[in-house]
Amino acid sequence: MSPKSETHRVINTVWKSEQPRLIASLTRMLRDISLAEEMAQDALLVALKKWPETGIPSNPGAWLMQTAKRRAIDYFRHRKMASTKLEEVGRIIEDNTPDHEADLVEALDDEVGDDLLRLIFTACHPILPAESRVALTLRLLGGLTTEEIARAFLATESTIGQRIVRAKKTIADAGIPFEVPRGEERAERLGSVLGVLYLIFNEGYSATAGDDLMRPQLCDEAIRLSLVLARLAPGDSEVHALLALMEIQASRTSARTDAKGQPVLLLDQDRLRWDQLLIQHGLTSLQQAIDLKGENEPYALQAAIAACHARAQKAGDTDWPRIAALYAVLAQVTPSPVIELNRAVAISMAEGPSAALALIDTIKDSPALQNYHLLYGVRGDMLSKLGRHTEAMLEFRKAAELTRNEREKAYLLGRAEEKNIV
């Protein structure tokens, strides 16, 4: 790889990591999400031009932030805004050094002191439609492209793009404050915020596109923000349940790929590599949700399923009948063909592939699953176990065509080409 290509690779990595904080901090300063995004993008363009010549800065995140602040000052000067506004923005930006960051945050907003959390609550304002809240927050905090969000929503790219543009315009026109609300208003927005964090975590846990199976930084950010929410709302069972689900799922991260980065299926993972501390934290959070009478809420049911795996020292010890039963309850609480697909996997382990395939065939024509690669991957697995190798090969190939994740694609094509299938 040439030095220039390597520099661009590093820039891309840094950008994915720093973009959410950059936009959040700039939004706090500028009180304009669209303008904050523009300034952040300008900083990225400057980095793409300068870093191949000067080398990667020792603190690339701080470099991008400082460059974005300077671009903001230039923007206001160019627009010849009122001198008082320019002085105000300039003072905030000049004073916002690492030594003064904590004091500035405390002075500007409420007790949370977290720009990313403020940005989530701003993007999840009830003035926006639910689907727009999620799309906007995934774009701003998850750093996902419009295409990635569209795949997560099983929607078209143009539809998601329009939602994001309209959402930012609505926030700007309504003058929504950049803050974490208090009291009843906070409670009203909490469910939407949890939904956003759930999707951000899922994107990190199983990336919809790219060369890597996972984007652990997104998982870490979702868990971090959920911990903050748990301190904000200690009596809310859903907060603890979602935190439990994330912690238990994240405990498997280091075991989910092999030395070459290839996926390792759950049943084949080395459970000694599972993070036991995260598992214990997750089980504690799940118990808190149960103590708050939230055991039959969606996140708690999913966390209970994850806990069944976490408690099994060996794959053969897994309580698959209980997992299938939990999925059945979850399907009643939140009916979804995706949940039924997951239930089919549990049924295959508890009762055999024939019973699972029968369930899959009742949902395989669902419109929501037509471009869902896991439908074809799971169906291919069931057909393979039943000895229907030619049909399984076609299903695995279809799944490989649909996924945008290169690791998953390679794995699925490998399944399709296995001698015992072909």
Automatic annotation (TrEMBL):
An example molecular function term from Gene Ontology annotations: sigma factor activity
Domain RNA polymerase sigma-70 region positions: 16-80
Boundaries of every DUF6596 domain copy: 189-289
Pfam families the UniProt entry points to: DUF6596, Sigma70_r2, Sigma70_r4_2
Domain RNA polymerase sigma factor 70 region 4 type, residue spans: 120-170
Single biological process term from Gene Ontology: DNA-templated transcription initiation
Organism superkingdom: Bacteria
Protein name (database record): RNA polymerase sigma factor, sigma-70 family
